[in-house]
Specification:
Homodimer. Helices cover about 55% and strands about 5% of the residues. The protein is mainly alpha-helical. A 3-stranded parallel β-sheet has the order 1-2-3. Strands 4-5 form a two-stranded parallel sheet. Bound molecules: tryptophanyl-5'AMP.
Length: about 325
C-alpha cells in the first residue's frame, strides 16, 4: 500500500481553508493509503508561539482531526517533536539543500516580508524540515493545498540531491495531491489574501470550532461587491471576494462553480450569504461539537498522540538510521 504523509501547524485553530485544502482529503484518502498525519509543532515555532497556546492548539488540533474523521487507530496521528527522526533528517537536509534553492521560496518571502534580518533561521530552513517529515517515512503522496506546492518541489530536489551525492537510490520522488477545487480558499476580508489561521483578524476566517452564530456573523460581514451573482464563471473574473464565496459553496456542496451559479444567478449577496451559511454550518458545526466533547478527555488525547508517535517512530527510525549511515555517521 502506498504511503501518505501530511502535516498541519498547531499555530492556531484550523480554518475552512485547512479543511477544504487538506483535512477533508486526508479523511477520504484513508480508505486507499497508509496515512501518517502530523501536528508539526517544530514548524510552528519558526515564528513566535506562546508555550501555553502552543500546547492548547496542539491538543485542540488533535481533537479537530479526530472529530473530522481521522482514524488514529488504523492510521497514525502524532506531534512532530515527539519523533526525533524529523530533526535528525532535517539537519542532514540543511547540509544538502543549496542556499539558492531556499532563496527562491515564496513562503519565506511572504512571511518575512522586508524585515528579513529579524526572522528566525528556522523559518528560512523550514522547507528542509518539511522534506525530512515526508522522506523520513519514504512517503510517496502528500495531500496539501496549493500553497505547499513549491515546498514539495524542493522536497523532490533535496531527495534527488541526497541520492546523487551519496550514490544511492534511497529517497523516492513524492507526488502532491492537490484538490482540483478549493485548493486556495481566500480571506473573508480580502479576496486577494489566502485564508490563514495566523491572520490577526478572526473575521477573515471561519474556524472549525466556530458555532452556527459565529459562522453566520462572519459570513454576513464578509467583504463582497454590490453586483448580483452572474450566470457564468467569467462574470467572477475581477471579483475575488465573490469568486471565493462561490468556490466555498461549490466545494462544500460538492457542486461545480457553474452549477452554483446556475442555481443562484441574479441573486444579491444577502440571500446568497444566507444559503452559504447553511452549507457551511452543516459541514462545520458537527466537527466543532465533537471537538468540544473530545477535549473533555485530555488524557485520552495525549495517549492517542503518544501511541501515534511510537508507531511513527517505528517506521521512521530504520529509514533515518540508514540515511545517517549513508552519510558516514558512526552507528
Ligand atoms: P498549514 O498548517 O499552513 O496548513 C495545513 C494544510 O492546509 C492547507 N491550507 C489551505 N488550503 C486551501 N486554502 C487555504 N487558504 C489554506 N490554508 C492552508 C495547506 O496547504 C496545508 O496542506 N508547511 C505546512 C505543514 C507541513 C507539511 C509537512 C505539510 C509541515 N510538514 C509535510 C505536508 C507535508 C503548513 O504550513 O501547513
Amino acid at each position: 500500500m502506498q504511503r501518505i504523509f501530511s502535516g498541519i501547524q498547531p499555530s492556531g485553530v484550523p480554518q475552512l481553508g485547512n479543511y477544504l485544502g487538506a483535512i477533508r482529503n486526508w479523511v477520504s484518502l484513508q480508505a486507499d493509503y497508509e496515512c501518517i498525519f502530523c501536528l508539526v509543532d517544530m514548524h510552528a515555532i519558526t515564528v513566535w508561539q506562546n508555550p501555553d497556546e502552543l500546547r492548547k492548539h496542539t491538543l485542540t488540533q488533535a481533537a479537530i482531526l479526530l472529530a473530522a474523521g481521522i482514524d488514529a487507530q488504523k492510521h497514525v496521528l502524532f506531534n512532530q517533536s515527539a519523533v526525533s527522526a524529523h530533526a535528525r533528517l532535517g539537519w542532514i537536509f540543511n547540509c544538502v539543500t543549496r542556499l539558492g534553492w531556499l532563496n527562491r521560496m515564496t513562503q519565506f518571502k511572504d512571511k518575512a516580508g522586508k524585515d528579513r534580518e529579524n526572522h528566525s533561521s528556522g523559518l528560512y530552513v523550514y522547507p528542509n524540515l518539511m522534506a525530512a517529515d515526508i522522506l523520513a517515512y519514504k512517503a510517496t503522496h502528500v495531500p496539501v493545498g496549493e500553497d505547499q506546492k513549491q515546498h514539495l518541489e524542493l522536497t523532490n530536489d533535496v531527495g534527488q540531491k541526497f541520492n546523487h551525492d551519496y550514490g544511492v537510490d534511497f529517497f523516492p520522488q513524492v507526488e502532491a495531491l492537490i484538490p482540483p477545487a478549493a485548493a486556495r480558499i481566500m480571506s473573508l476580508r480580502d479576496g486577494t489574501k489566502k485564508m490563514s489561521k495566523s491572520d490577526p483578524s478572526a473575521q477573515s476566517r471561519i474556524e472549525l470550532t466556530d458555532d452556527a452564530d459565529t459562522i453566520s456573523l462572519k459570513i454576513r460581514r464578509a467583504k463582497t461587491d454590490a453586483d448580483a451573482l452572474p450566470a457564468h464563471p467569467d462574470g467572477l473574473a475581477d471579483r475575488p471576494e465573490a469568486r471565493n464565496l462561490v468556490s466555498i459553496y461549490a466545494a462544500l456542496a460538492d457542486m461545480t462553480v457553474e452549477q452554483v451559479l446556475e442555481a443562484h444567478q441574479g441573486q444579491g449577496f444577502g440571500p446568497f450569504k444566507a444559503a452559504l451559511t447553511e452549507v457551511v454550518v452543516n459541514a462545520i458545526a458537527p466537527i466543532g461539537q465533537e471537538t468540544t466533547r473530545l477535549l473533555q478527555d485530555e488524557t485520552h488525547l495525549l495517549q492517542t498522540l503518544r501511541s501515534g508517535a511510537q508507531r511513527a517512530s517505528a517506521i521512521a527510525e530504520p529509514i533515518v538510521s540508514e540515511a545517517e549511515k549513508l552519510v558516514g555517521f558512526l552507528k
